[in-house]
Amino acid sequence: MSGCGRPPPPLVVVSYEQVADPNVDLNAQISSAFGPGGLGVIAIRDIPGFTDAKAALLPQAHTLAHLPQSDLENLEDSKSLFNAGWSHGKEKLGDKPDTAKGSFYFNPLTDSPGTQEERDQYPVSYPCNVWPTGPMPQLEPAAKALGRLMHEQVVKLSVHIDKFAATKVKDYPPMLVSKAMETTEKAKGRLLYYFPLTPEAAASGSADSWIGWHNDSGFLTALAGDMYVDDDTGAEIPSPDPTAGLYVVDREGESVQVSIPPDCMAVQLGECCQIVTGGSLMATPHCVKGASPSASPGVRVSRISHPCFIDTKPDFPLSMPPGRERG
Fold first, then answer.
1. CA 260 to chain centre
2. Would the pTM of this model clear 0.70, i.e. be above it?
3. CA gap 217, 270 in Å, rounded
4. What does the alpha-carbon distance between residue 307 and residue 304 come to, in Å, rounded to a whole number?
5. Maximum Cα–Cα distance for the chain, whole Å?
6. Which of 143, 189, 161 is nearest to 308 (CA)?
7. What are phi and psi of 272, to 5 degrees?
8. Helix 139-168 × helix 27-34 angle, to 10°
9. In angstroms, what is the C-alpha Rg of the chain?
10. What is residue 85's DSSP assignment?
11. What's the pLDDT tens digit per position in 50-73?
12. Following DSSP, what letter does each residue of 212-252 receive, concatenated?
């Protein structure tokens, strides 16, 4: 993968009205976004209530990340391997603890997904939510409102993904992905707070200084875009570094920056979706590059984002279509 710096190609953008109508033909847009020549991401514009829901949740990440350490420890859930509640320094970037960001994980669809038996069998997939009991009373309703709205759009988009896959895969099961997305209780919102880069991290020049290169392993990931704040005050600021933010690897192996318009929700494709569609739709490696301190003298810049990972039930029969050797 080459370094960051090439201007991004046009992002595929569709309207909410198009996505909400199952009779609209979006095959060309789905192919452009997720097919062999795409970036693995599509944006949906003019979703009713989206910008208000985003504005209600994202700024709370600053307050959450700056709670007293004792309050944050009360929000940790080790039995789910920190897949619910607060997580900071529990994941690894390479072979070192990742302290570049803090995450608050939650299920926007239900506080107790699955049955008790399923939660015992799949503690990482079906953790119960952990919410602050005293501070931040608006976090839970705002998180659920945005997460549920994002889930609804993923369900609508997956109808069109199924229609496209049916044109590429022989005997593709009708509504394979959309039915699974509609009925699932396996949804994970991740309210992310990226702490200001250290001088050492900035000096490395790494393209993945905030989140390392990776593919999403699940089905579909909804993205609410991002915002930048002054870490000391929480005040929103424009991104001072035009090279900071989300990058993906295109099909030529080049890393290119993807900027999600503020009035759009984006959707990325995960590896499971690539598998069930026999590779007709493809997941894309992506990372997040940090804002260089040199771009904002005197201001410690943080980034806030909110991806929501929508996956099938844990017992979904994941397999490639018959006759396909790789997906």
1. 12
2. yes
3. 5
4. 10
5. 60
6. 189
7. -65, -40
8. 100
9. 19
10. E
11. 999 999 999 999 999 999 999 999
12. EEE---SSEEEEEEEEEEETTT--EE--S-TT-EEEEE-TT
